[in-house]
Amino acid sequence: MDQPKLYIVIPCYNEQEVLPITSELFLDKLRSLIAQKKISEESRVLFVNDGSKDDTWNIIKKLSHKDEHFEGICLSRNRGHQNALLGGLMYAKDRCDVTISIDCDGQDDINAMDAMVDAYLDGCDVVYGVRAKRSTDTFFKRFTAEGFYHLMNWLGANVVFNHADYRLMSSRALQEFSQFKEVNIFLRGMVPLVGFKSTSVYYDRAERMAGESHYPLKKMLALAFDGITSLSVKPIRIITGMGFLVSVISFIGVLWAILSKLVGITVAGWTSMVCVICFMGGIQLLCLGVIGEYIGKIYMETKQRPRYIISEATEEDNRSE
Ligand code: UDP
Ligand code: MG
């Protein structure tokens, strides 16, 4: 088998400080993988400029003139990390055999790429880079980030714990992934839906080499909210559950009101009023939940996700032998 052609896909937004440092590291890693004959000489580092307002695009252009292993694409405006990454992966998927996506700030250990490529050569189509520990993150960042994964999982958006967007995906997995036509994307939650053989590689997360984070708490919450609402209809289920609970409680309330009336400790009109309020409250919430269930179904239908993906067929095997 020929060596696979690898594309390292890197979204960049206002990264003029860090790019000159990390681009060399990426190139060194690519060269070392090529030298070990794990990947083809045609492999590339692909930068995606996400509508940066600083000198990022010029730096990328200069890099690509300097070394043929560097390539760049530029989005027409800032579309956010997830969209920029998707743009890069979709661009790469027809040009290579395998991709690795990574941030450009050097926080994710590039040395984990060796293990990722090994896993790919072993037959995995998806390899998740998972942070073993976050000793360099502040307590606040660690607490909020880990809380983020727990909340997401609890609300039905299953994500690989402590895995961000540092991952290897084969072009086959990407081809299938491109059938997911939805506009609100949360890549780390959607990739597991594609299936195929996958594994995890563990690494330590370092500090940003230069520049500032573009993911303050506000953006992280927005991402979590996006992830939950685009992957799961569990919040609607929670409303239905609450409706059910309130109905039960109001039933007890009705019994209590009638009992009070019988014992004779109420003023006139109180019983009927409490009964109506409890009853209506419960029924309304329950109905909202039921309507929500349908909306949830419509929502999932509009995404038109593939219902299944075939990973192997015996026919194909026979032909290739
Ligand atoms: N990024 C992007 N578009 C944006 C924001 C961020 O392409 O609108 C890129 C950024 O250049 C970096 C990656 O996404 O390569 C992750 O961002 P950052 O390091 O700021 O996030 P953190 O690691 O602090 O969560
Ligand atoms: Mg970062």
Q: Strand order of the main beta sheet, please?
A: 3-2-1-4-6-5-7
Which structural category do the helix and sheet elements fall into?
alpha/beta
CATH fold field value of the largest domain: Spore Coat Polysaccharide Biosynthesis Protein SpsA, Chain A
The largest sheet, given as strand count, sense and whether it forms a barrel, is:
7 strands, mixed
Find the count of extended strands (DSSP E, 2+ residues).
7
CATH architecture identity of the largest domain? Alpha-Beta Complex
Range of helix content: 40-55%
Summed up, the domain count is 2
Helix and strand succession?
Answer: EHEHEHEHEHEHHEHHHH
**Overall pLDDT level:** 85
Rg value:
26 Å
Number of helical elements: 11
Shape: elongated
Alpha-carbon distance between the two ends:
14 Å
Kindly describe this structure.
With 321 residues, this protein is of the alpha/beta class. The protein folds into two domains: 6-231 and 306-320, Spore Coat Polysaccharide Biosynthesis Protein SpsA, Chain A; 234-303. Helix content is 52%, strand content 13%. It is built from eleven helices and seven strands. A seven-stranded mixed beta sheet has the order 3-2-1-4-6-5-7, sandwiched between helices. β1, α1 (19-35) and β2 form a beta-alpha-beta unit. α3 (81-93) crosses α6, α5 runs parallel beside α8 (217-231) and α9 (234-263) runs antiparallel to α10 (270-303). The longest helix has 34 residues, at 270-303. It is elongated and about 90 Å long. The mean pLDDT is 85. Bound molecules: uridine-5'-diphosphate and magnesium ion. Magnesium ion binds next to loops.
